[in-house]
Amino acid sequence: MAGVWLYHGLWCKLLGGCPQQVDIVAAVPRLRGRVTKPVLLGTGVIETILAVWVMSGRKPRGAAALGTALVAGMNAGGLTFGRQHIPAPKTLIAENVAFLALAWLAAEEDARA
């Protein structure tokens, strides 16, 4: 799970490995112009911190809850305002549902250990 957060946070957002994400953020009202890049970078920092948190194994349910909120918020904003920049919206939703299901399964297993 941490690898997914690290990829999306560090590689895609902080290092600019997924340039279409700038377009998706820029499509959200009030996030256009000068605030687009700082919002994208801030999101990347949060995702990278979440990756470290997941790797730490501490409070796995809290990490899963934050991850769920991030995925839901980013998907809602991206699909509402930046859909034209998302090549396969249905696939995105299916992947994220599967990812969150696995994140919660792992969190519950870690919480019991």
What attributes does this structure have?
single chain, 113 residues, mainly alpha, 77% helix
Give a written overview of the molecule.
This protein is mostly helical and 113 residues long. It has one domain. Helix content is 77%, strand content 0%. It has five helices and no strands. The longest helix is centred in the C-terminal third of the chain and has 24 residues. The radius of gyration is 14 Å and the shape is globular.
Average predicted confidence as pLDDT: 96
Ends distance: 17 Å
Number of domain modules:
1
C-alpha geometry: globular
Amount of helix? over 70%
Low-pLDDT segments: none
Largest pleated sheet: none
Task: Please indicate the percent range of residues in DSSP E strands (runs of 2 or more).
Answer: under 5%
| Helix-strand category | mainly alpha
Order of helix and strand elements from N to C terminus: HHHHH
Q: Helical element count? A: 5
Q: What gyration radius follows from the Cα positions, in whole Å?
A: 14 Å
How many extended strands? 0
